[in-house]
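>> Question from a student workshop board

For tomorrow's exercise we were told to take the sequence and the ligand below, predict the bound structure, and bring the output to class. My setup keeps failing. Could a helper post the expected result so I can at least see what it should look like? The ligand is MRU.
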Amino acid sequence: MIARAIEWLDGKLRVLDQNRLPREQIFVDLDNYRDVVLAIKEMRVRGAPAIGVAAAYGIALGASGIETANKDEFLAQLNQVMQAFASSRPTAVNLFQAINRMKKAASGNDVTEIKNSLVNEARRIHQEEITATRQLSQLGAGLIMDGFTLLTHCNAGPLATAGYGTALGVIKAAKDQGKRVSVFATETRPLLQGARLTTWELMQEGIPVTLITDSMAGYFMQQRKIDCVIVGADRIAANGYTANKIGTYTLAVLANAHGIPFYVAAPTTTIDLSLTSGYQIPIEERSPGEVTHIQGLPIAPEGVRAANPAFDITPNQYISAIITEKGIIRKPYTEGLKRVGSRFV
Ligand code: MRU
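>> Workshop helper replied:
Here is what the output should look like for this input. Compare the format with yours to find the bug.
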């Protein structure tokens, strides 16, 4: 049983600090919305659906800390809380879907009623992610055959979703269906989510996993060791172009060159129908220090220039199917995504 990534406990948010994994399992209790914003920015909580859930609870927390009983004043301060979350990380659309839902839930006769309504909405958002990730995992498992070896990138398990997982959820569900599956996990530089988190989660699930560096993926595809690639997503545009952890595009092109299916698994909260093209998705640029250092240790000459885009865009022609809780979508993506997606932002 994997420790819960996010939990709402007596009016506080308890998060498992993902930066300390796998060395230590440290839970941090956050009773201030600014600390939740910081936890998202510093990636103690990470993964698109989990960021959305954490922000929802964080907004409820922020609301509970507003002291005025005047409704207009309260709503003005609540708006500032929401703005702080909106500027925490730009790529995962689940964050903005959650903020929008919290905005709509901010109604009631008085401030106390609104505060309660916000906590209830955050709980609902969390519960819906749990249900959606379970459902999409069940559906996606149908694409996995007995004996498959899958390659996955970054971390798209329970830690990243505050639920069952997306890419890893599909793999777990396939195992639960009695299929023998094994996984190649890419380490995922610069922040090593694959090495630190995916291997940790899969080992706890008893799913055989082999850790490889990012640059080994092509070698193993050429050796015919990979039956399919499965990844999560941070935002899927209306045309099916998908933002996910940097390096995903490279894997998709490689999979295509080797005739290997490439699947994207994501709840419908990751779909953004307001963007007609994936190239409109904002790509987070993080500190160059994450590239020049590994876990605080310098690995490059001091003062070297480094770039650090955190995500890339995979064009739809490289994606064999998008697995959501409302169905498995195939080309042409625009039609299928319109059926299941939403237009919150
Ligand atoms: O920067 P991160 O670690 O938040 O990026 C996470 C990913 O890219 C995941 O693959 C994505 O959010 C899908 S999580 C189910």
